[in-house]
Design a protein that fits this description.
The chain has 390 residues and is an alpha/beta fold. The protein is built from 11 helices and 6 strands. The two termini are 44 Å apart.
Length: 390
Amino acid sequence: MTKLLLKLFVRNQQDTNHPKVRSAVGVLSGVTGVICNILLFAMKLAVGTISGSVAITADAMNNLSDATSAIVTLVGFKLAEKPADEDHPYGHARYEYLSGLAVAALIIVIGFELAKSSVGKILNPTEVLFDLPVCIVLLGSVAVKLWLCLFNRKLGRMVESKTLLATAADSRNDVISTGAVFIAGVLGTATGWKLDGYMGLGVALFILYSGAMLARETISPLLGENASPELRGFIVEVLRSQPEVLGYHDLMVHDYGPGQRFASVHVEMDQRLDALVCHELIDNLERKCLNQHNVHLVIHYDPVAIGDETQDRLFHMVQSILKEQDERISIHDFRMVKGEGHTNLIFDIALPSDLMSQRKQIKKQMDVRLAELEQGTLYTVVTFDIAAFN
């Protein structure tokens, strides 16, 4: 069914990085979600009202929130498709994240309202009619939601969309909550226990939890989370494909929404290579990264001295001294400037975030150790970096 819908409504579906393909996939998910959830809401509201079950009514309202969420997702994907303009030169792709945040807010509000209704039903329990039509509606809902879960998961993985994957997770949660309502109805009918209010409260709490998790997933990229290991790996793979690149560091990725990622990195090359040759090689790497992974990469060229025995010895000495303090510390951009009375060692130290507050102490211990080994002839000029970028 999913393949058929993709074939009918998404052109050039193989080109998943293209904004129009992402938009078409988002629209397909949104329209499908709206239709399915509106039908489920209408059926559950009818049987919930007739049977007097607050749990089924709560589940119906959950489907209504899902329909609203699908509309917001649809609008978000369409807005994200807008091209860059003078006021937003990086495009509008973050609308997809904002739509996910709006969905999370709607889910949380509805969860609170359902919790209030369920507490009222616990305090004032009433009889619940649980017959064959109710069973058919609930089991049908489980089947539809299970399909929606698999459908959105496939689309989400296809275009690497956190919003669609969150929608898939929400459908999975609905399978669990509707299943719980069904079990409560069966047990209540068999035993006479009045579980409806408690189950309604359970569904409401589950909805609140889902909304909170969705909010966390969508807020994180807006706050500037680190690039995924997969994306960083793709960029590094491009850099390593060029033999003249001796090393790289300070890889920073800025996410302006799916399909709008910008990155910068420093690459080390032999200083004896012609500058024009290095410039051409770097241009080729930037172009390759854009064509293969849709990442706008800017590369800074760092010339390094190769074959200087004194510099190599000092590099390994400094590295060894720092490793004694913490194995996670690394150095880069190491160069040596000789003077008449002393030698300057200029380099960057990459520290894990939990060690950044100890910068002065780490440098002081390193300088003391260097003075012991080289009789005070070395001066260090250090810049500290965050290890997450290296």
